[in-house]
Structures are given as structure tokens and as C-alpha cells.
Amino acid sequence: MNQAPTSSPAPTVSDDVLSGYRQSIDNIDAALVCMLAERFRVTQAVGVYKAEKGLPPADPGREERQIARLRRLAEEAQLDPEFSEKFLRFIIDEVIRHHARHQSQAQTPA
């Protein structure tokens, strides 16, 4: 009778070098979250402004310029440009969704 192998719990790592790397990663993750929060505060203001002025939520020309710029920056930083584009596209899509919500709220009579 075959029994599935049991997995033992992962060993606790007390390696100082690995702990140092992980602390750096944690610090970078915290900075990324703070930067994204700030970026979304600004894009929320853009969304409100666009709604007030009757501008469309999306600006495909700007989006393409931003993606091209980010791809260049990624290449210079030795980061996979495909990854950077996917990351920015995810953010842009979320921003457009927020802008569209502002548009619909601005069009709803009070």
C-alpha cells in the first residue's frame, strides 16, 4: 500500500545573511507600498479633475508613452521590461477604473 510522503515543516532559518536579505526585502516592500499609495492619491486627484472637466477617464496616448518610458527605465536598471510593462499596465487599468467611477459620480445628479 503506497502512502503519500508526509512533508515535514520547513526548517527555521537563523542564517544572519539570509535574515539581512529578508530585512532589506521587507524594507523595499514597505517603500513600494508607500510609493503606490502616494501615486494613487495623485491619480485620484487627476480622476476628480478629469470628471470636473468632462475629460475621458483614459488617455491611450499618454499610457503608451508611459509604458515606453518605463520599459526604457527598466532596461537601464537591468529589470525585465516585460515585467515592468505588465506591472504598469496593472496600475494604469486600476487608475482608469477609478477615473471612470469619478466620471459616473460626476454625471449622477445630486
TrEMBL record:
<protein>
    <recommendedName>
        <fullName>chorismate mutase</fullName>
        <ecNumber>5.4.99.5</ecNumber>
    </recommendedName>
</protein>
<feature type="domain" description="Chorismate mutase">
    <location>
        <begin position="12"/>
        <end position="103"/>
    </location>
</feature>
<dbReference type="InterPro" id="IPR002701">
    <property type="entry name" value="CM_II_prokaryot"/>
</dbReference>
<dbReference type="InterPro" id="IPR010951">
    <property type="entry name" value="CM_bact"/>
</dbReference>
<keyword id="KW-0413">Isomerase</keyword>
<dbReference type="InterPro" id="IPR051331">
    <property type="entry name" value="Chorismate_mutase-related"/>
</dbReference>
<dbReference type="GO" id="GO:0004106">
    <property type="term" value="F:chorismate mutase activity"/>
</dbReference>
<dbReference type="GO" id="GO:0009697">
    <property type="term" value="P:salicylic acid biosynthetic process"/>
</dbReference>
<dbReference type="Pfam" id="PF01817">
    <property type="entry name" value="CM_2"/>
</dbReference>
<dbReference type="GO" id="GO:0046417">
    <property type="term" value="P:chorismate metabolic process"/>
</dbReference>
<dbReference type="InterPro" id="IPR036263">
    <property type="entry name" value="Chorismate_II_sf"/>
</dbReference>
<dbReference type="InterPro" id="IPR036979">
    <property type="entry name" value="CM_dom_sf"/>
</dbReference>
